[in-house]
Write a structure and sequence with these properties.
456 residues, alpha/beta, Rossmann fold, Helicase, Ruva Protein, domain 3, 5-stranded parallel sheet, 21 helices, globular
Length: 456
């Protein structure tokens, strides 16, 4: 079994030598390049598992090398070495697809942790089986896109901000990013920031030393230390007070924490994922959330759509939930009548997937043992998602006018669900692209569709 091979790109001989010695002691072979031209030639000649590149290089910079490697058929992890405190550059590198960054002067313990994590992505023994489709259910185009993004995000250490309404599945997405990535062997620590009392927040996050305050009878590790080598997921991060936001920002940037009562900072190796149902950008404008922290945790944004925007996924979700509930209750999975399923697909679901689970659990307790009917669902009235299923209403005008209005609503919805991709919208409606384009023109929707899309 051959040793891992790492490409080191830096124009300073002393730095190249330091990195070479460190990696060789880790039983890793290295090749060095002093500029991008040599690095490109080596990438074509050899099979590398990782690239370490300085940001400032002759004939370009490390970001150029990130772009070159990301554009290759089989991209390898790239870690960028940045000047101390240059977080804007580090964030830009990770947005472009860099695996992680490390600041100068290089901390060798942090470097070794980074290298070990990156090499796990190339280890054939630890290659993950891709089973996201069986955990994050749904065949709508937007769910396919989210699963694809999860697969890509798992190959990075970039902080991810997961936005979406309550109950839409943000924690599940965070867990999948962790499970598919290089840190899957480490812990996944999830915390609801809104559930921690204000006076205990600093201790919960960073830990404390014995005797540092009244009641501190023993040393305590915080959440950062509990997540060492793994992933820390901050749910409802918008609920953090400003005083803790400052300390959280420093911990993320320096990759170090200081427990209460401790004299020295402690290095931590975690990946940060965060989420909230609130609009963080609006909170930044209002002054209740720090802008610098917002940009630091929002390196990559992953939006989870509400259930009402992907009602075509409800049959698959319903079948899965009923099977799970039936297994828990040791009963045969019940049938769901066509009318009940139609009602679920028309319902607005303000509580999203979590509310769907509650509705089905209640229905399972109330149904007569034969099949779950619409009345068993006990859905609130007047909260149906009529945009998905436009009803015919006898407004003044001809039948043709009414039919065209229904057709217009259906086509507009399909375009929105498919991000104004006409080909995908036509496929969703069961139309040929030519027929779809004809209807767009006939219904005067072609200008609207064109102005919202770069795709034809």
């Amino acid at each position: 079994m051959r040793k891992p091979l790492v490409l080191i790109v830096d124009d300073e001989p002393d730095i190249r030598e330091l990195l070479e010695i460190t990696l060789n002691r880790m039983d890793i072979e290295t090749c060095c390049a002093e500029n991008i031209h040599i690095a490109k030639a080596l990438l074509q000649q050899k099979q590398f598992e990782l690239c370490l590149t300085d940001m400032k290089l002759p004939e370009g910079n490390g970001l150029d090398l990130v772009d070159i490697i990301q554009a290759s058929p089989n991209p390898i992890p790239v870690a960028v070495i940045t000047a101390h405190g240059n977080m804007d550059t580090a964030i830009l590198a990770m947005k472009k697809g860099a695996f992680d960054f490390i600041s100068k002067p290089v901390d060798l313990s942090v470097l070794r942790q980074l290298i070990n994590s990156a090499l796990k992505l190339s280890d054939p023994i630890s290659t993950k089986e891709r089973r996201i489709r069986h955990e994050l259910l749904g065949e709508s185009l937007i769910m396919w896109e989210i699963r694809s993004k999860i697969d890509k995000l798992a190959r990075s250490q970039a902080p991810v901000y997961i936005s979406g309404e309550s109950g839409s599945g943000k924690e599940l997405v965070a867990r999948l990013i962790h499970q598919q990535g290089a840190r899957s062997d480490g812990p996944f620590v999830a915390i609801n920031c809104g559930a921690i009392p204000l006076e205990l927040m600093e201790s919960e996050f960073f830990g404390h030393k014995k005797g540092s305050f009244t009641g501190a009878t023993t040393d305590k590790k915080g959440l950062f230390q509990a997540a060492e080598g793994g992933t820390l997921f901050l749910d409802e991060v918008a609920d953090l007070p400003l005083s803790l936001q400052v300390k959280l920002l420093r911990a993320i940037q320096e990759k170090k924490i200081r427990p209460i009562g401790e004299q020295h900072e402690i290095p931590v190796d975690i990946r940060l994922l965060s989420a909230t149902h609130r609009n963080l950008a609006d909170m930044v404008q209002a002054g209740s959330f720090r802008q610098d922290l917002y940009y630091r945790i929002n390196v990559i944004n992953l939006h989870i759509p509400p259930l009402r925007e992907r009602s075509s996924d409800i049959p698959a979700l319903t079948g899965h939930i009923l099977a799970k509930l039936s297994d828990i209750n040791k009963i045969e999975p019940p049938k769901l009548s066509a009318a009940a399923l139609a009602a679920l697909q028309r319902y607005d679901f303000p509580g999203n997937v979590r509310e769907l689970e509650n509705v089905l659990e209640r229905a399972l307790a109330l149904y007569d043992g034969k099949s779950i009917e619409r009345d068993d669902l006990n859905l609130p009235v007047n909260t149906y998602n009529n945009s998905n299923y436009p009803d015919y209403s006898p407004d003044p005008g001809t039948l043709q006018d009414s039919l065209e209005e229904i057709e217009k609503k259906a086509m507009t919805l399909a375009l929105k669900e498919n991000k104004w991709n006409k080909t995908a919208a036509a496929k969703q409606l069961g139309l040929t692209f030519r027929s779809f384009r004809y209807r767009l023109k006939k219904l005067n929707l072609d200008n609207q569709a064109g102005s919202n899309s770069f795709l034809s």
